[in-house]
């Protein structure tokens, strides 16, 4: 009951046109303190997920190295790090070998790119330890953006893992496919009707009274707009709409996230993983393609965009449907920084998409229609 009331209060704050307050703290597995126990000499896998609402985190374990082995389903080149940045909506997996003298060690997660640094600690306990944690909590990076960019560029696909040999990627290689379309998305934080909203390319999304998939299936007009959001940023005032960007099944898209704000962004696409091929500072131009990693970029589901910077992803649209592209930062997503990507093939086939279930609940303008 208390959680429901808290969430309602957050919703009312956003609905009133105000931003959410700065987080009150950081938790690890929902707790202010945890203990993880392991045997000296053994190696354990830790999966770190940032499930917070708004803030990037840095993860580290006192006196221990983190060997990165997986990022959101992608097997990585197994580089070793002292600490890792994990942005909102992202997950990584690391191997940690308990090769230190037997005692207890701090596990630390702290906020990134914030003036006030919030820190959560837990304990890594060796089973043969008789010494509690001691010393200062290991410090992590705070506002070093270049440090984070350089680390992100070292995350690379392991081309020899989890695939056929000797050609791990088969006959398909993302770096040799010519994009069928380029979409440049500039995020913004406009005031609309004197209330805080968020937008892509000046368009702030609002939910319609009819679910988009039902409107699409029954070809119901007036529910969403296919031309309100442009594929390149433009000048002008922001406005509210229900934007859907049309695309064809098997298109290969280049999507550039252009962040002209002073805060880090985190972008997520439902229904797909995508290759994160480039990060850069300032304004994206076509010349930036020369900096792309077209060999061993990771596939993942959520990509960070650094302040006053750009991030480029490549995505193969092989999954028909209506898919949400949004900010993973929940205030921004709730207040309109999202849209839907309609991946479509005019030839109806069960190989592409199943039929709508006969017991589908209908609402809005779809009431009274029959699947």
From TrEMBL:
<dbReference type="GO" id="GO:0016491">
    <property type="term" value="F:oxidoreductase activity"/>
</dbReference>
<feature type="domain" description="Plastocyanin-like">
    <location>
        <begin position="209"/>
        <end position="346"/>
    </location>
</feature>
<dbReference type="Pfam" id="PF07731">
    <property type="entry name" value="Cu-oxidase_2"/>
</dbReference>
<dbReference type="Pfam" id="PF00394">
    <property type="entry name" value="Cu-oxidase"/>
</dbReference>
<dbReference type="GO" id="GO:0005507">
    <property type="term" value="F:copper ion binding"/>
</dbReference>
<comment type="similarity">
    <text>Belongs to the multicopper oxidase family.</text>
</comment>
<keyword id="KW-0325">Glycoprotein</keyword>
<dbReference type="InterPro" id="IPR008972">
    <property type="entry name" value="Cupredoxin"/>
</dbReference>
<dbReference type="InterPro" id="IPR011706">
    <property type="entry name" value="Cu-oxidase_C"/>
</dbReference>
<dbReference type="InterPro" id="IPR045087">
    <property type="entry name" value="Cu-oxidase_fam"/>
</dbReference>
<protein>
    <submittedName>
        <fullName>SKU5 similar 17</fullName>
    </submittedName>
</protein>
<dbReference type="InterPro" id="IPR001117">
    <property type="entry name" value="Cu-oxidase_2nd"/>
</dbReference>
<feature type="domain" description="Plastocyanin-like">
    <location>
        <begin position="12"/>
        <end position="128"/>
    </location>
</feature>
